[in-house]
């Protein structure tokens, strides 16, 4: 708001690392690191739904490094791109909750992600 006041809250998963907005602005996505999921929040009603994103599984629980950290929203279809350890790219369709996995070649821990406005370049910070 113009006065920066909190107008509502919504419960999300454990230890959210990132937040993104759908191309149409109707949903907000919290990337929930310690619960291996993404929470979609309806921007108007604040209703939530959880979508698991765990291409390596959830073994190791809170001690696992193999959790979602950051996401970007692909502008042409609204799918979320979530890099995992530079080895796998989880592509989450927030309409269906379906996750497909694509290979990556960085093979290192990620620290941030950005997508070019036309969706042709995905940049992942590693280190």
Distance between the termini: 36 Å
- The run of helices and strands is EEEEEEEEEE
Count of the domains: 1
The tally of beta strands, per DSSP, is: 10
- CATH class annotation: Mainly Beta
Question: In angstroms, what is the radius of gyration?
Answer: 14 Å
Biggest pleated sheet: 4 strands, antiparallel
What is the helix fraction of residues, given as a range? under 10%
Please, what is the average pLDDT? 89
Proportion of residues in β-strands: 35-45%
The CATH architecture is: 7 Propeller
- The geometry reads as globular
Low-confidence segments, given as residue ranges, are: none
Strand order of the largest sheet: 1-2-3-4
- DSSP summary: helix tally: 0
**Structural class designation:** mainly beta
Query: Any idea what the CATH superfamily is called?
Result: YVTN repeat-like/Quinoprotein amine dehydrogenase
The name of the CATH topology is: Methylamine Dehydrogenase, Chain H
Textual characterization of the structure:
There is one protein chain. The model has no long low-confidence stretch (mean pLDDT 89). The protein is mainly beta and 127 residues long. It has a single domain (16-126), classed as YVTN repeat-like/Quinoprotein amine dehydrogenase (Methylamine Dehydrogenase, Chain H, 7 Propeller), CATH 2.130.10.10. The strands form three sheets. Strands 1-2-3-4 form a four-stranded antiparallel beta sheet, with no helix packed on it. A four-stranded antiparallel beta sheet has the order 5-6-7-8, with no helix packed on it. A two-stranded antiparallel sheet has the order 9-10. It contains no helices and ten strands.
């Amino acid at each position: 708001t113009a006065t920066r006041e909190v107008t509502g809250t919504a419960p999300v998963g454990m230890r959210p690392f990132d937040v993104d907005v759908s191309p149409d602005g109707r949903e907000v996505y919290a990337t929930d690191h310690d619960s291996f999921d993404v929470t979609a929040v309806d921007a108007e009603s604040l209703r939530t739904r959880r979508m698991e994103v765990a291409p390596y599984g959830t073994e190791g629980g809170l001690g696992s490094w193999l959790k979602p950290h950051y996401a970007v929203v692909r502008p042409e279809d609204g799918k979320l791109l979530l890099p995992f350890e530079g080895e796998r790219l989880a592509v989450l369709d927030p309409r269906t909750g379906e996750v497909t996995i694509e290979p990556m070649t960085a093979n290192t821990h990620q620290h941030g992600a950005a997508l070019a406005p036309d969706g042709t370049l995905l940049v992942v910070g590693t280190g």
